[in-house]
Amino acid sequence: MQHGAESGRLEVRIEGESIQPGKVALRDLEKLAPLLQDALERTARVLRHEPGGAPGPVPQEIQLATNLLLVGIRNGSANLLLELPVPEEAQAAEGLFPLPPPDLGQRALDTFVRGLHELEAGATEVPNDWDNSVMAIAEELATFSSEREVTIEVSARPAGYRPSKARLSPLIADRFRVRHAPVTRPRTVRGRLFLVDLKAGRIDVEDDRGNRVRCHFPPELEAQVKRLVGEIVQASGSEEIDLAVGRPARLEVEVLEAGGEEVPLAGDFWLNRSAAEQARDQGVGPIASVTDLAADDEFSEDELLHFIETIREGRRGT
Asked: How far is CA 201 from the centre of its chain?
């Protein structure tokens, strides 16, 4: 779908007793602006079949497609007018990096606001073409609405798509929460037990990658915890992980035991030694003739017959 130079519009209306007509507190703008920008970027990523909250910088082509511009503030509460233009930079930058589809930003704007409308209407599932990274933005907008006791109305007019509208208010803030999916799984972690809080029943185990695993132990394991502080341990139990956001909770330890000492590698293990050096150290040399591969001692007749019979038995087995 080609839109030429047509731009999309997003209007954000904030209503509440603390809001003065035509004025927006800088702290509110600093909060809302990044959320709206992140929402479009994450939605665009999901539309490209990528994780919306993927680590690392946002790809340049998505930045160009979703770059929101503040073009005005209207009276009548606080109305922020945002524009999503077709990025002119894309034409000049052609060939330097992949260009976004012509309507990626417009689709992201349409998808995000329509998703908000579905949640406002009471949808219990994550909206189409969203993931939980986009849900996290909706939750933060709902939190802002509740904390500031304001209603936020977003109206979208994406180029080439029908207008859409959604409202977030403190009364329905729970509809915009992340849809969590906690499950419990068994887990065993091996590492050094280096932090202990006996009162809280907490220990931390640092694995071989330097990652800290938070653990909780029952009172009956307190004696073992005291004995193993600073040692390599193996802690086994159950761990709750939220599949929706991929974030594990603490490990509930059921078994704690000494993990044994780690076997250190020899100092020259990491040396990139040549084949000639290794051959010299092992006392071997080049092969001058195939006879060099022959056994030092001759086989007796009985040994030879036994060898042949073993081969025949193996063939019959196949």
From this structure: 29
**In this structure, are 231 and 296 located in the same domain?**
no
pLDDT in tens, 66-115: 999 888 877 655 677 788 766 554 444 444 455 556 689 999 999 999 99
Nearest to 148, CA basis, from 16, 24, 25, 22: 16
In which region does residue 150 sit, left (phi positive, over 0), alpha (psi from -120 to 50) or beta (all else)? beta
* 30 and 125 share one domain: yes
pLDDT digits (tens, 9 = 90+) for 146-167: 999 999 999 999 988 999 999 9
Q: For the whole model, what pTM was predicted?
A: 0.58
Q: Please give the C-alpha separations between residue 84 and each of 57, 107, 114, 159, in angstroms, as whole numbers.
A: 20, 11, 16, 9
Dihedral Cα 191, 195, 196, 197, nearest 10 deg: -140
The pLDDT, as a whole number, for residue 135 is: 94
Number of domains in the chain: 3
Residue 31 belongs to a domain: yes
Whether residues 213 and 294 fall in one domain: no
Stretch among 139-143, 193-197, 231-235 having the lowest mean pLDDT: 193-197
Q: What pLDDT sits at residue 94?
A: 47
Q: Which of 235, 258, 281 is the last residue of a domain?
A: 258
The answer to the question of residue 120 being in a domain is: yes
Same domain as 85, residue 70? yes
Residue 90 has a pLDDT of: 44
Range of the domain at 306: 272-317
The whole-number average pLDDT for the span 5-32 is 82
